[in-house]
Every structure is written in structure tokens, then in C-alpha cells.
What we know:
Number of domains: 2
CATH architecture of the largest domain: Sandwich
Structural class: alpha+beta
Helix content: 10-25%
Largest sheet: 6 strands, mixed
Number of strands: 13
Amino acid sequence: MSADPRQDSALHQALSTGPFHLAFRLAIRRSGLGIEGVSRRLHARGLPVSTSSLSYWQRGNRRPEREESLNAVRAVEELAGLPADSLVALLGPRRPRGRWLDRVHGRPKVEHSLELSAPARLPEIDTGRANAQLRQLKHDWLCLVDARRHEVEHRVRQVFQALEDGVDRFVAFQAVPPGAVPPTYRAVSDCRIGRRTHDPESGLFAVEIVFDHVLRARETYAIETVQLPAPGQADGFIQYGCRAEVRDLLLRVRFDRAELPVRCHRYRSRLGAGDREVFGEITPGPSGAAHHAVLDAQPGIYGLAWSWDG
């Protein structure tokens, strides 16, 4: 097995950010067996994968999808001394088949959920299919606002249920204004941050949140992440665009008690409609907190806004 520190560093980076074909190629190199040697070992384990298939996978011409192919990738992980499912996790959701096609068809566009004015182009991520294999049971978002009126931290707790076998990640989408710096995401529990990608023209920013293990159909999974905005960010609102029903949606803001807003209100709008329905004003409590809770939130945009002027 290879012990080249530079190759190991490159492999570690590829396992964190992808793409799969690069990490797979580096894993084969680390095993010290070469493509032919790996193919022989796989055959010996009852996993007949040809050298041409391995070559296609490491060049990115094809991707392993069938269960037998995924088992072969897991065997390569073992041969290279890698953590279980570290390569498999980079493959993302399997291509849609059967009922998944029905769920994807007619699904609201991510551009509508983020109120983007230009079509989004993210070659690395299929925005139409992203998250279609997940049902979001809970989305709890807490925004912390400091005494300078800046949004300094966003804490998000989510609970999902897999609709199909093989789900291993959630893709978080966000709108980044022109010239602004995309936020930094950090994993808090039961996940890690995967690929990040940004389309400056449309403003769409996406980050993969990879689960600690691959889910089976109907399995539930909870994660917690933190988002750190660019210094000095003061949007004056938080809003979440639902492309599918969310059973329990909770938007919370906690202000520094030394600097409370003059006005705070809840609102919602239809996807792609540009309208806004305001639910009236809220007075932050003694702790400086305000919230917007929605049960069985249907596709749409839900928000909590505040202002410092009378």
C-alpha cells in the first residue's frame, strides 16, 4: 500500500470535496495494486468488475450505480485502507427510477424557492433532482443577531426520512447577492460538509451535507449544522423556501437584548409569484427572541423580518 504523504493529502482532500472519479483513482493508486490487480482481487471476492469498468470509473466516463458495483467500490475502500463508504458517499443519490421520477416531475425549481431572477447553472449538482429522495420532517433555524445589528451565526437542526434506499446527503441551497461572499458551513453533529459550488451569475450557492452513513428507505436521520455569514451581514430577515412539504418548520431569531428591533413580522409567499402575505407584528420576548412556526408547511416561502427604524 502506498505511503506517499503528498498522494495521501490529495486523497484526503478528494474524499472531502470530490469528485468521485478523482478520489477513486487516488484510492487505486494508494492500494498499490493498479487497475489489473484490483480487478483480480475483486474477482476473488466474487465481485467480477472488468479493468475497463474500473478505468471508466476513475476517468469519470461512467459511475458505479448497481448494488454489485457499489459493493466493488466498498471493496476498493478496504483495499486502500479507507473508511467504510468514504468513496460511496461521493457518488450522491442514484439516478431516478420508478416512483422517484414522479416526485421529481413537476417539482418547484430551486430558483423559485430562492427568488432568483436568473436561471441557475451548477454543473456539479442536479438542482432538479437534489433532495428528491428525502422527506424533511423538521427544519429548525436559529439566527443570532448581535448588538451591532449583524447576523453573526445561523444554527440549523434538521430531521429527514429517506424515501428510497441509498440516500446519503442533503444539498443546502442559498442565494448570494452579487459581489457578496458565500457563507461558511460547519458540521456540528452526524454529518460532514462535502462539495461547495457557486454560480455568481444567478447567485445560487450550494453545499452538500453528507450523512455519517447511507440511509435505507423510511429510515430517519437528524443533523445539525452552523452557517457563518460574511462579516457585517445585516439582511434584516431570514426565509426558507420549501420545494416540498415540511412537517415542522421553525424560524427563530435571537437579538442582543441591548439592541432590539422596532418592528418584527412573519410572512409567507407563493413560489414564483412575488407576492407576500404578512401575518402582523411580533414583539420579541424578554430574551430578545422571536419565531415563526409552521406545521405541515406546503411549498412556498416562509420568513421572519425585522427593522430598526420606526
